[in-house]
């Protein structure tokens, strides 16, 4: 099997896995995730978009974050894609009528923003609790940073290392997350620092990691 064929097979397998998980869960996803996907609104507050600037969410899910960002920055333009067609159905429904939000189906590890959205780079790109679900998260991170305009920034919020929480809590959390194919990326902080100048916060006793990497 060629490299391209293998990548396509991996992408299809991941898409099918996400559709199986979220085909039903998408209907109550936002109501339940509010209790443990901590720091999402804090990350959105840090996007700091000026009128006319653009932002791309990689793994937009139900569209919850896109809606929140569009309310904060009504004169900016927002784009989002997800590998799950089931999740995208919810996103399309929730963002219907928003004239500054554009959606597409795509894979974070091999997306072509020009094909999907008509532009190659954006002022802000962000991941919200998605890198912990992407098997080849390093490839997704590298490709995302390449799509940031010079002077723009990549933002990430995801699970942290829980360093300042009891060991039993961390073990229980990680075991429970694994049931949903979620794996906290303990090497994420180092990977972000490798990209460039990274500002990193570890709120909630390192339950979450919130980061911003400016592209020079």
Model description:
Helix 7 runs parallel beside helix 9. Strand 2, helix 5 and strand 3 form a beta-alpha-beta unit. By secondary structure, the chain is α/β, with parallel strands linked by helices. It has 10 helices and 7 strands. A 7-stranded mixed sheet has the order 3-2-1-4-5-7-6, with helices on both faces.
Write the layout of secondary structure elements.
Blueprint: H1 3-25, H2 29-33, H3 40-45, E1 54-58, H4 64-72, E2 77-82, H5 85-94, E3 101-105, H6 113-117, E4 122-128, H7 137-146, E5 148-159, H8 167-178, H9 188-195, E6 197-201, H10 203-206, E7 208-214
Parallel strand pairs: 1-2, 1-4, 2-3, 4-5
Antiparallel strand pairs: 5-7, 6-7
Helix pairs in contact: 7-9
């Amino acid at each position: 099997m060629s490299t391209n064929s293998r990548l396509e097979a991996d992408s299809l397998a991941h898409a099918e896995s996400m559709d199986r998980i979220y085909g039903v869960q998408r209907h109550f996803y936002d109501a339940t995730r509010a209790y443990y996907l901590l720091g999402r609104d804090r990350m959105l507050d840090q996007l700091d978009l000026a009128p006319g600037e653009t932002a791309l969410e990689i793994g937009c899910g139900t569209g919850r974050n896109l809606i929140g960002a569009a309310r904060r920055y009504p004169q900016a333009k927002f784009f989002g894609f997800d590998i799950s067609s089931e999740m995208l159905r919810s996103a399309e429904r929730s963002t219907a009528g928003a004239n500054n939000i554009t959606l597409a189906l795509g894979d974070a590890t091999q997306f072509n923003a020009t094909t999907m959205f008509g532009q190659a780079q954006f002022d802000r790109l962000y991941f919200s609790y998605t890198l912990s679900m992407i098997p080849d998260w390093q490839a997704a991170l590298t490709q995302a940073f390449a799509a940031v305009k010079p002077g723009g920034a990549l933002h990430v919020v995801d699970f942290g290392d829980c360093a300042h929480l009891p060991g039993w809590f961390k073990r229980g959390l990680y075991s429970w997350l694994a049931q949903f194919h979620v794996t906290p990326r303990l090497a994420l902080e180092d990977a972000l620092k490798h990209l460039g100048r990274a500002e990193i916060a570890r709120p909630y006793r390192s339950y979450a990691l919130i980061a911003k990497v400016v592209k020079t």
